[in-house]
Every structure is written in structure tokens, then in C-alpha cells.
Amino acid sequence: MRPKLEDVAKLANVSKTTVSRVLNNRGYLSQETIDRVYQAVKELNYQPNVVARQLYKKQTRIIGLLFPTIANPFFGELSAELEKRLYNEGFKVLIGNSMNDPKKEAHYLNQLLTKQVDGLIVGTHNRGIKEYNYSHLPVVAIDRNMNQDIPVIESDNYNGGVLATTHLINQGAKKIIHTNGPIELESPTKRRRLAYEDTIKAYGLTPITVTVDFNIPYIEKKKIFTQIFKDHPDLDAIFASNDVDAALIMQVALEQGLHVPKDLLLVGYDGTQIIQNILPGLTTVVQPLEQIAQTAITVLKQRLNNEPTDTEYILPVTLHKGITG
Amino acid sequence: MRPKLEDVAKLANVSKTTVSRVLNNRGYLSQETIDRVYQAVKELNYQPNVVARQLYKKQTRIIGLLFPTIANPFFGELSAELEKRLYNEGFKVLIGNSMNDPKKEAHYLNQLLTKQVDGLIVGTHNRGIKEYNYSHLPVVAIDRNMNQDIPVIESDNYNGGVLATTHLINQGAKKIIHTNGPIELESPTKRRRLAYEDTIKAYGLTPITVTVDFNIPYIEKKKIFTQIFKDHPDLDAIFASNDVDAALIMQVALEQGLHVPKDLLLVGYDGTQIIQNILPGLTTVVQPLEQIAQTAITVLKQRLNNEPTDTEYILPVTLHKGITG
User: Among the four residues A284, B67, B232, B291, which has the most C-beta atoms within 10 Å?
Assistant: First the structure.
């Protein structure tokens, strides 16, 4: 016989309510009571019926987060924000860093399809994962278009592109290069590129976009940035696709003897707390990270409850004016 | 009756082996087969017996990671590394950001005690959590002393402190200030302070350690750093307790009209990839992050198997010489 709650109560010499309060961390409890209850839990090898309940309800109260890597400050801060808010709503958070690992992403989707997690929030960059095509999955995407059925939460990428490019032009830049992810990536971040190109052309200038894959190592990125300076010695500004790349560009420029902002104007994208604090001078487009996290959770809960949702949620960005551009 | 694997196989018109291969992502499978199997899973509302198996085996194959916040690059990169390696060993990873939240930490311990996770890797800063006192818990700590029973994985904090301090003295610094966490925090990182003080005294200088709690907001930290410059106008070097703080100190120094390294020598601690890449000039003590992650996992697996372990694992550090000190 599996031990029951009342067996724990009896052994610990407390009421069932007290056992339940200890196990659920509720109300004031003396350390002595807590110790007695856990001692009984241990002796009996008791497991509360949470797991059993999961089995019958087919609910785990676990949400999976799939991002390229939480080692990147944007995904690190976003995951921390999501976890904080999900925890407060009674969910636990499984994390998967799926950078360059479509098999791992497929595996987590498999977890979802077989009800081992209740829902997924995904912002990965892998392509061609067929499991997303099952309809009405409790999945929301951040900055990624997966299929018609999965809602996307994103910052206003187009306006971000306009803000950054217009700002550089107003500062006097004539030859502005934009870095962005691979064109074939199905992500609303492509709209930054579109906005950059539209704005550049509206001012009678020539757009030059250089592809920098988010998923390659820093050293490869630095090679690409070095090549940009070699190919375009008359370059006077860069609108980088994220703040970490902007910081790398600043390093590479310095190695080329170019000082920001004297010789090169620079605008980044993301506006994470850590970069804003260690490089407050970086001009950047700030994404509303808390609002993105909260919207993703609200929409995911609607999906879990089979309620209708919009297909796209676009949240406002702002320009932080530093001294780099 | 709950649907069984053979019901799925029958409906999808494939063998049971094929269903199992689809659900476990094993071997070559055509997209058509995958689709047929998942369609049947969905129609039957089938849930594989993983959850049931968990219930009887009392194993979840889930490891919880408890760190102050993955928004910090050290914990972000460490968590990413731990997740990658644990995933390869067949574990999934729950994450909890427990900064300033002892209740949340106690809650995750409760999950462990009631077998909802198999083990915990903790590097939190909360104090006075009594649940750790149950013996033989499958818990390992990173940079934290919890009790006699829980093994601690740490970098060689004492040697790190010696390397940083000796380096600054060799560069000609006379008045060197060290920043470190609260003295009452039970963490091996206190040995950096001890090493700094021992080294400073061995050279006939006066140690000055300023307390900076890791868990306070950036703005509060900046106030403390500003105060340091006000209190010690003759200061010529700082050995900061982590790289993010070092980067903040560089900003604050600049606001005070002090340039690094001309007016102030600066050494950090951690050597995360991101900081090394965006601030390659920062001289810092580099922790062996991959080795810390691997050791934590190896030791945790030993605990899970009831094998004996050491109580402390000290891993070597190196000094990265940049241009700040």
C-alpha cells in the first residue's frame, strides 16, 4: 500500500490539515512541526498525490521555455521575467536551449504532444520542425512565425527599424549598414530590415544589409564585422540587429582604429538591463521585455483554456539615446 | 479505459515499435508516419506511461536549478551549460530564480522532498532555509555552503583573490579596494576576501573591503561605487567581486572623470563569455564554467545513486590580462 496523507499525520502526530499546510508551504508553522512532518514523509517514503493527480487530470502545471540560449542577455532576462511571472501563477518552468538543435526542439514539442508539459513559449531559430503543424497546440511564439495557428508576440520591429534609421540619418550619417539575421528565417524581426530599407530609400540613400546569423560563435561574428569595415571604408554608421552585436562591433571598430561615435555612429536593438547598465552610452531600440513576458503568458493561458486569441501582438518600442549614435 | 500504446498503433495502422520510435524520437521515420501517429495520439487523447512510470518509480528525470537570477551572465551561462549537459544525460531542467525569495527556494526544496524533482543544483543567496537540514538530500551547491552534508562545487576562490591582488600590486597599485558580498553569507566566495586581505597585508598595505550585496538593484550598487570614490579620492585600484560590478565601476569612474586604466586599475571576477567578448579589455579572474557544470552534474548523479562524494570540489582559476589593470 502506498502511504497516505493520514499516515504521515499519524506518524508526525499532527492533523492532516497541518501536513497539508507544511507540504504546501501555507500559513505560520513552527520549525518543529515542519521537521516532524518531513521526518514522517521521509520515513514513509510518502509522495503526495500531485503526480497521481497529474496522471488523471493530464495537467502538469509545467510550462516549457524554448529559446536559442539563455546565455544571451535578451533571452536570459526574458526567461527570468517569464519564470517569475509563471511561478506567481502556479506554474513551474522547464528550460531548453535549442540553439542549432532542431532535434531538441522537436523533443520538447513531443513532451507537449504527450502531455508532459502543459504549454510552450518558443523563440527558437530552428526551421522545418513539423510537429508545430498540429493545430490548436498550447504554444505561443516570441519573435517567430511558426504557422498560421500559433500566436506571435513581438515588439514593433518595423517602428524600431524606422526609429533607428531615422535617428542615424538625422545625426548626419550617409552610408548606413544594417545587420540582420538570415532572410529565410521566419521571424517578424525581418521587419526591422524592411523598415531600414524603406527609410534609407525615402532619403535617397542606398540600403546595405549584411547577414549575421544569431547562432554563430562570437569569433565568427567578429570576422563578419571586420570584413564590413574592409569592404566599406567610407561607412559612417551601423544599425546592429542586437545590443551584443553592437558591443562586438564597437570592439572591432576600435581594433580598426575607429572610435565610436567620432568615426562611426552605432545603434543597437533590445535594450536589456545588463547592457544598458554596463554600456549606458549605447544608443538602442528598447524592447518592452516585461510587457512581452506578460502578454506571452496571458495568451498562453487563453490557449490552455481553449479561448480565442489574436494571431499577432505587437508591442511598442522606444529609442534610448546614448552617445554612440 | 485509458488508451494504450496498442490502441494508438491500431488507429495509426503502424506497429507498436513504430509508435514507440515516434514518441521517443528515435531512428529514421517518414513525416507521413510521424503525422499518422500524432494524429492517433490526439484522437485518442493518449498519454504515454511516462507519468505513470514516474508515479511508481518515484523518478521524474527532472533536475531543478536554483540560482539568484539567470539574468546575470554568470548564472545565465552556467544554467545554459548545465541544461545542455543534463539534457544529454536524459534529464530535463526546471529553473527557479530565487533572488531575495527564500519562500520560493523553500518551495523548490519541498518539490524535492516530495519527489517532484529528482535533484537540485543550488547557488542561491538566501539564508536560513531549514529544509536543507534533512540529510542525504540529492542536492549539490555551487559556491555556497549549506550544511556539512551537501557537497560544494566552487572555483579556487582563494587563489583567485591572490592572483587578482598580486597582479594589481605588481602593476604599482598602493591603495586597492576590494568589493565582496555580505560577510555573513555562507559562501566560499568569502575566500577571495581572505586572500585579498592576506596578500595586501603581506605587502605591508592596508586592506579595505566594501560590502556590495549581489542581490540589490544596479542603481543601488552604483550609489555604493560612487561613495567609494568620494570616501577614497586617493584610491588607485579596485578588485571587484564580479565582472558586471567591474563594468559598473568603470561607468561610475568615468562619471567621476576617472579613466581606466590611467587613473584607476580594475580587476573583475568570473570571465563569462559575454563580458569577455564585449569588454575584452577587462582584466579578470576566469572561473572554469564548463568544469563547474560538469562536476556539479557528476556529483549530483553520485548523490542520486547513494554513492559517497567529497564534501568540497575546488576547480582552478586563471587570470585574463586585459588593459584595465
Answer: A284
Q: Are A208 and A227 in contact (CB under 8 A)?
A: no
* Chain B residue with minimum CA distance to A27: B103
Same domain, B187 and B203: yes
Quick check: A93 contacting B, CB < 8 Å?
Answer: yes
Give the minimum alpha-carbon distance from B200 to chain A in angstroms, rounded to a whole number: 28
Can you give the pLDDT at residue A215? 87
Q: Indicate whether A13 belongs to any domain.
A: yes
Q: Do A45 and B58 touch (CB under 8 A)?
A: yes
Residue A274 at interface with chain B, using a CB cutoff of 8 Å: yes
Q: Same domain, yes or no, for B109 and B21? A: no
Domain that holds residue A136: 56-154+289-316
Residues B114, A23: C-beta atoms closer than 8 Å: yes
**A118 SS3 class:** coil
> Do A89 and A180 fall into the same domain?
no
Q: Does B301 share its domain with B279?
A: no
ipTM over 0.90: no
Asked whether residue A323 is domain-assigned, the answer is no
**Domains contained in chain A, number:** 3
Name the E strands within B84-189. Answer: 92-97, 119-122, 139-142, 152-155, 176-180
| Residue A269 and residue A280 in one domain | yes
Query: What are the pLDDT digits (tens) for B223-258?
Result: 999 999 999 999 999 999 999 999 999 999 999 999
Domain co-membership, B306 together with B261: no
Q: Are residues A69 and A114 in the same domain?
A: yes
Same domain? For A161 and A279 the reply is yes
Which residues in chain A (136-195) have CB-CB distances under 8 A to chain B?
none
For the stretch B110-114, contacts whose Cβ atoms lie closer than 8 Å and that sit 24 or more positions apart, written own/partner, are: B110/A23, B110/A25, B111/A92, B111/B64, B112/B64, B112/B137, B112/B138, B112/B139, B113/A38, B113/A41, B113/A42, B113/B137, B114/A23, B114/A41, B114/A46, B114/A47, B114/A48, B114/A50
Grid coordinates of B158 = 582563494
What are the φ and ψ backbone dihedral angles of B97, each rounded to 5 degrees? -95, 110
